[in-house]
Specification:
This is Esterase family protein. With 250 residues, the chain is of the alpha/beta class. Helix content is 41%, strand content 20%. It has 11 helices and 8 strands. Strands 1-2-4-3-5-6-7-8 form an 8-stranded mixed sheet, with helices on both faces.
Length: 250
């Protein structure tokens, strides 16, 4: 089993300590986001670092598994939608303005190095949101079984903060993301994958909608829809990550 290094550091954005774990010693820095309500240790507990062990051992990838605050944002159904959106925006700023530079420092990255982001379930949404909103920080993203229609979590995108965190909505608007910069990317800079098996219904619909929204904007995207045996669980996410990570970072 791949061993990780544990960190617990203060976040000014969130006003609390945030935990994360690092796997590998060198290579492309990759921010990994958990499934809805998940924790930073879920990736290790479900064998995801082991799924890309050769890349980690060879120094081609360094994996940084972040924590979530979903209980206060996406899943905080007992609080007002605006409050949920505010917390999601704070979390986005934590990932992109605090954790991202910290990752680059720990990685010993050269100047102008860009990160990648990868996520499963709602973590796929977080990863893609990072890539689309901050392409000057994130070179690409891999979304596995993503849930990209945030209306089910945050409400209507007519609220400005919801819109800012709703990729299916903001891609249709002008001036909210740098489409000129995003359009220059390779197809494999944004990889989306979902299965057609158990509990993949929402992810299948959302992933297709996300790919269509990107294509409509002229933005490159690689979409793969796997078979009816491919379910919404870590076993398949490990297989998908193994394949895509080797393609991108191998």
């Amino acid at each position: 089993m791949i061993q990780g290094t544990y960190y617990k550091e203060w976040s000014r954005m969130l006003g609390r300590d945030m935990e994360f774990k690092v796997y590998g010693h060198a290579g492309t820095p990759v921010l990994a986001l958990p499934a809805r309500g998940g924790r930073f240790y879920d990736w290790e507990n479900n064998g995801m670092p082991d799924a890309i062990a050769p890349l980690l051992n060879e120094g081609k990838v360094q994996l940084f598994c972040a924590d979530s605050i979903d209980a206060e944002s996406l899943l905080a159904g007992d609080t007002a939608p605006r409050r949920r959106a505010e917390m999601q925006e704070k979390y986005f700023n934590y990932l992109t303005s605090e954790l991202a530079p910290r990752i680059l420092t720990l990685n010993g990255a050269k100047k102008d190095t860009l990160l990648w982001a990868v996520g499963v379930d709602t973590g796929a949404y977080q990863a893609v949101n990072c890539r689309l909103r901050r392409p000057e920080v994130f070179a690409g993203a891999i979304g596995l079984s993503g849930l990209y229609d945030v209306r089910r979590f945050l409400g209507n995108a007519s609220d400005d903060l919801v819109l800012r965190n709703a990729p299916l909505a903001y891609l249709a608007e002008e001036g909210l993301v740098d489409k000129k910069l995003l359009a220059k990317a390779e197809e494999n800079a944004l990889l989306l994958c979902t299965g057609q098996g158990s509990y993949e219904g929402d992810a299948l619909v959302d992933t297709q909608a996300m790919a269509d929204a990107l294509t409509d904007c002229g933005l490159p995207v690689h979409l793969e829809v796997w078979g009816s045996d491919v379910s919404h669980d870590w076993y398949w996410w490990g297989k998908e990550l193994n394949l895509f990570a080797a393609r991108v970072f191998g």
